[in-house]
């Protein structure tokens, strides 16, 4: 848990610094349609949740078990998913549940990011492309790391690319932000 708290605080600090730097570079929001902005916000939230779940996966060395994809021990949801009581303990202490949650969140992140990239393509082509490429690479690195039973080189690449993915999601969301100032009549 301390590892994940440390990871969260570091990424919050990184995100705040990046957002501030982007705002200095482009102080006036370009805006854009609501749908791409909402999808970019959802993607950013899912990236953050997936990184947190990845922290628990790494902390428990959960990638050393269930080294098949997409099934886990022949099941979509592993049989030991809810074996700890009370149930919330499974979310941070149960290897089967922690790895399943990370896989599920990663898949939802992939889908949301691709939808956000497609929706934002006309108004933010560069950030949309960066998001699509980093999320695709991240998903492939995650599956490869799992199937290869977590070699250090792939695990480090997966963790490094997670920061790139967070960066891409932040840049797209920043580009699509609305102006908060009131228009002067």
Offer a quick outline of the entry:
It is built from six helices and no strands. By secondary structure, it is an all-alpha fold.
Describe the structure.
- It contains six helices and no strands.
- The protein has 185 residues and is mainly alpha-helical.
List keywords for this structure.
185 residues, elongated, 0% strand, 69% helix
CA-based gyration radius: 18 Å
What is the helix fraction of residues, given as a range? 55-70%
Mean pLDDT: 94
Quote the distance from N terminus to C terminus: 52 Å
Overall outline: elongated
Order of helices and strands: HHHHHH
Number of helices: 6
Q: Strand portion, in percent?
A: under 5%
List low-confidence stretches: none
Overall strand count: 0
How would a crystallographer describe the biggest sheet?
none
What would you call the structural class? Answer: mainly alpha
Topology:
Layout: H1 2-25, H2 34-59, H3 90-93, H4 95-120, H5 125-147, H6 152-175
Helix pairs in contact: 1-2, 1-6, 2-4, 2-6, 4-5, 5-6
